[in-house]
Amino acid sequence: MDSYFTLKLFDLVAEKLEELGVYSFVEKIISEALPIFAEIEYEGLEVSKDTLSALGRQLWELTLDQEDSLYLFDQIKKTDNLASNNDLIEIFYLREGGFEFYPPDKTAKGSPSVSAPTLKILLEQINNELVRRS
């Protein structure tokens, strides 16, 4: 019974890949890589601790540089903690002289939300407004 459903599923996926025009790519590239992925899954992947540590340091520095650059905005005070939801609510929505955005969503308790999905909506709204104005 499993083989029947696997074949049906393959037919559906293959048809969709054909419609998207990527079936030949999957057939030539992805299917050739499957044994390599299977071996990695079975055997594991060797990771250099030194390289991983160096990459971690680079990402940490990049993150700090990005966060530091946010303090260049007049709306963000040097004392603001960008990891604090309360400070983000103040910066984005409540503070006079802040960004003063309208909150696109609220928490269950009715406070303005700064969750990742809400910030994504806010970013989309900002981008749409910038496109509209250009």
What does this structure look like?
- It is a single chain.
- With 134 residues, the protein is mostly helical.
- The longest helix is centred in the middle third of the chain and has 22 residues, at 49-70.
- Helices cover 67% and strands 0% of the residues.
- The chain is built from five helices and no strands.
Structural class: mainly alpha
Q: What share of the residues does DSSP label as strand, in percent?
A: under 5%
Main sheet makeup: none
Average pLDDT works out at: 91
How many strand segments?
0
Uncertain stretches of 5 or more adjacent residues: none
Cα-based radius of gyration, to the nearest Å: 24 Å
H/E element sequence: HHHHH
* Silhouette: extended
Number of helices: 5
Please estimate the helix content.
55-70%
Distance between the termini: 58 Å
